[in-house]
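Researcher: Last one for today. Full complex below.
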Amino acid sequence: MIGNRLHKLRALPGTVKTRRLRGHPGAAALKRRIAKRSEMATIKEVAQLAGVSTATVSRALSGARPVNADVAARVLEASHALGYRPNRVARSLRTQVSTTLGLIISDVQNPFFTAVARAAERTAADNGYSLVLCNSDDDLHLERRYLDVLVAEQVAGLILTPADEKASSVDVALAAGIPVVSVDRRLRTADLDTVLVDNAHAVHKAVDLLVREGCRRVAVLVGPEHTTTAAERLRGYRDALTDHQIPEDPGLIVHSQVTGGDVATLHKETKGLITEVIREHSPDSLVITNGPMIAGSLAALADTGRHLGEDLAVVVFDDMPLAEFIGLTSIVQPTEAIAQQAVELLLSRVAGSTPPPHEVVFKSVLTIRTSSSLRRVSPGRRR
Amino acid sequence: MIGNRLHKLRALPGTVKTRRLRGHPGAAALKRRIAKRSEMATIKEVAQLAGVSTATVSRALSGARPVNADVAARVLEASHALGYRPNRVARSLRTQVSTTLGLIISDVQNPFFTAVARAAERTAADNGYSLVLCNSDDDLHLERRYLDVLVAEQVAGLILTPADEKASSVDVALAAGIPVVSVDRRLRTADLDTVLVDNAHAVHKAVDLLVREGCRRVAVLVGPEHTTTAAERLRGYRDALTDHQIPEDPGLIVHSQVTGGDVATLHKETKGLITEVIREHSPDSLVITNGPMIAGSLAALADTGRHLGEDLAVVVFDDMPLAEFIGLTSIVQPTEAIAQQAVELLLSRVAGSTPPPHEVVFKSVLTIRTSSSLRRVSPGRRR
DNA sequence: TTGAAAGCGCTAACAC
DNA sequence: GTGTTAGCGCTTTCAA
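Model: Here's the assembly. Have a good evening.
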């Protein structure tokens, strides 16, 4: 077998030399050949056309090391003629580095996450990285699958909104040396850089506002219990009640169990839950702690004949396109800042920095519109 | 240099044998070593631990070829012990196939596109593919960059909503042998599988409805001119006017020029445009042909003191979360079907099928709510 | 400044 | 059924 190898070793330089001496095929022929294959031109073909070695092509194109000006020009021309673009897969395999970041969000249809995604993408691009986005639909299996894919794809770093504070398995990434930043939610099973908003405080302020407006029976709708955001937002609610010496009524605390991005299901479920609370526990106000639950909640109001900001005061978490139009008082999260911070934390780790994990908490802003008031209106004046 | 090579050639089997004879390091040691490196375990390490060749590991894990049961078990155990997961980069480089699809959408914050993205991802997953999502913000440069990245990343296929019907450069992908499907918009520069909705017809029906409601001065707001959707939707509007023998008033046709995903800018611009139309051209109704333009338009109504479905009838393209609550009559696109169709067309080409390009047009559904009516209400009854 | 050669981690063709 | 080896396309020593 060594003989075999030797044979090839001797044969190879020979072939190359012969080809070179005989003159290379020329751009046109090479181009035709490539078009026919309908595959990417390789560095080898560029080298052949430019009459240099692949190493020189690599150097000329990357500018990593000095190359003779004429040679560089010839390489550039050849690469251009063939429409050459370096194969990232090969490059990344060779260099063991990647300029792609992964972002796994738990709901592509949630405006909060899409806003984060957009801003993150921008920050990544500003730093020369591309960002690929995956949607876990808050499903642990899907999340795990994407984690696996991105790790196997050798991304440089990962941003994640964990579907479950305990069960999310980011260790596949960590074990592969891929740094991970958690956004919007904490992860209890790993010590990660985490970017959050002041969930408890935000809801606290919302309840304060409602109480100031004269509300005493404040209902709250929170998402599934296995995320830290739900727990924190509920805590803010409770703290506020305590502050105002309002006894807690368990009937006013509603947990949605729907998970996953199915808008229709969530809408129906939410509508049912809120309808029940309104009918059974006569709240005078409502805090909705999750953007995707807003539509269903408002549908419940309509169904039960309640009027937003008149006989039922409402504050919601997350801003959305039509919030302004219908006067929805909203807790607005600084999505750009969150995303930027997350990407920056990530990139500093990608660059090799290993400080103890940070936890960055951003303040959210309570944008007061009309829905959070209790204007008693005479029935006749209502349309 | 051949000598050098020979030396290595001889040395290599020796080392391996020595190691093997001396007994492999054992899972614990190997694991420790890997943890310390904080890098992925490689197939080589698994092979070493299982006491077999890398080829056997590959075969045992992929199941591509029969492997002795004991050996397979040992391999499985070793791979599990080391937390081994095949490096996709290397695999894809070697096999020249990839199981990743790319989806480039023009606006992550547009519910239509996110709905498409979600459904596409699902269909891809059902077929054993993962989908990575990129956001071009309708920016040709960004789109091009992502096209480049995904091609260089060797994705198996691409779905795209072209930012510009003429300038989008999908040929980088096509030249690399990567099939491309266009969604939502046509691309004039290449012959692609394309999945669309009946834009013209949908708007036509919307105008019909408004005219039936008694409207005569129907204003229309369309997006930037360089997409085929804008043109088609405008055509639907014009056809409808012709049908009803209503003369066209150029003042009632508004083109938004804002492109890119900046929600705030678009909101402001739209609001300004609609305010002007209302003030200067007194429309009695309004067709908004793009989801992201809805919020700004409604803000303009509020500003000019108009009331939705009372003194101004409105129909919008694209459904959105709060549309139901505010009674917005909407042209709803079958996003799931669109996405599924697109992925299936793409995968059939990925699989090697090369029929002439398809164009699939889906019907949209006009969901009639209250905003499309003209109920004259006495001022006193309005709240 | 340039080229030859090795090698990233994997799979497949070929031997046995 | 298993091992050896070559090679995917690229970058990067090492030599010259």
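Residues 1-24, 379-383 of chain B have pLDDT under 50 and may be disordered. The longest strand of chain B covers residues 100-105.
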